[in-house]
Amino acid sequence: MKRYANKVSPWSGLMIGMALGALAMYAMDPRQGKRRLHEARDKLYSTSLKTRKLIDAKSRHFSNRARGLQAKASHLLQ
After folding, report:
1. Please, what's the b/e burial string for 39-76 (b: 16 or more CB within 10 A of its CB; e: otherwise)?
2. Residue 39, domain extent
3. Mind giving me the DSSP string for 11-42?
4. Is 7 inside any structural domain?
5. Is residue 63 part of a domain?
6. Is 68 contained in some domain?
7. How many domains does the chain have?
């Protein structure tokens, strides 16, 4: 048996192709495909909005902490 340097199975391409085919069939279904695509779009939008809000909150938090540490340091140096 031939050894692969990156340890990828020769079956992985086949499995990925099958998974992509199943996903295409799921999304392109004439009865419910459009609804599924719209649902996926809405979930992606919601997740991106939540992520953006979380990043904004964390950046404000760290900014405030940095300002607090700066104030403490300047107070100690005076």
Report:
1. eeeeeeeeeeeeeeeeeeeeeeeeeeeeeeeeeeeeee
2. 12-77
3. THHHHHHHHHHHHHHHHT-TTTHHHHHHHHHH
4. no
5. yes
6. yes
7. 1
- What CA–CA distance (Å, rounded) separates 28 from 36? 9
Q: Is residue 70 part of a domain?
A: yes
pTM (two decimals) = 0.56
CA end-to-end span of the chain, whole Å? 73
The string of pLDDT tens digits covering residues 15-63 is 999 999 998 888 888 888 888 889 989 999 999 999 999 999 999 999 9
Tokens of 46: 């919601």
Does residue 1 register a pLDDT over 60? Answer: no
